[in-house]
Specification:
single chain; alpha+beta; 4-stranded antiparallel beta sheet; 3-stranded antiparallel beta sheet; 7 helices
Amino acid sequence: MKKVLFILCSGIFLVAGCGQSSTNTKNLPVLDASSQENLIESLKVVSGSVPAAQKEKFEGYVDFYTTYQFPSPKSYERLATKLNGKNYQEALQVFNEDLIALREDFDGSISRLSLAGIPEIASQPSELSKIVITNLTYNKATHVKEMDIENKTDKEISAIQVMAREDFEPGPNKRVVMFLIDFPPLAPGKKIHATEKEDVPPLIETLDKELTNGMPAVAIQAFDKDKMLVLNNESLFEAIDAISKLRFLVDEMDKVLQL
């Protein structure tokens, strides 16, 4: 009799256990994406239902999206309908698919800016393009950089930030370097042969590696005798800054995708 009772009780526990398992996902808390604020608050609630094995991954996604995506109305709207009413398992799938697509998009943006955008912006006609740089040479033994500079602007200049590049055609793996050179005040319409020894160790290393004689070069900033900025290629520096930010975000994405 005891044996029969044991079997019956075991069966009851098994049925109860199966019933609980089948309703687990139904009873899980879900996201409310009706507003940015509600989504961020409900992510905290849903996070409490995530099992230990997936906790680090879920929280990695949440940290990334709440820091870099959901504060943006456009990014919130892109994901709101996909996340609304989803439990942690479903949200993980949405986050994973979106992050992979987002990373590919960011890689494309970086490539477009690096391969085409920056050389095009750097060499487009502007006041800075009126500063003509020719005969660029660099001595790797003495670290002396030299060039001829003609000032066709209407401003007196005494220093320029130079971008030298293998060429200014779009393409990958082009040698490129940026550096500053000082020279005596150069009036509008005048020319000068500028010579300067580089003494900054990290820049010396870069120049030794990347700069070759005769590389085409353009001015991307110009300064007066007091080293005050008088001409600036804002579009170029915005593009450089954008690449830096995109690369940072790609690194952050990779950290999450590897969890």
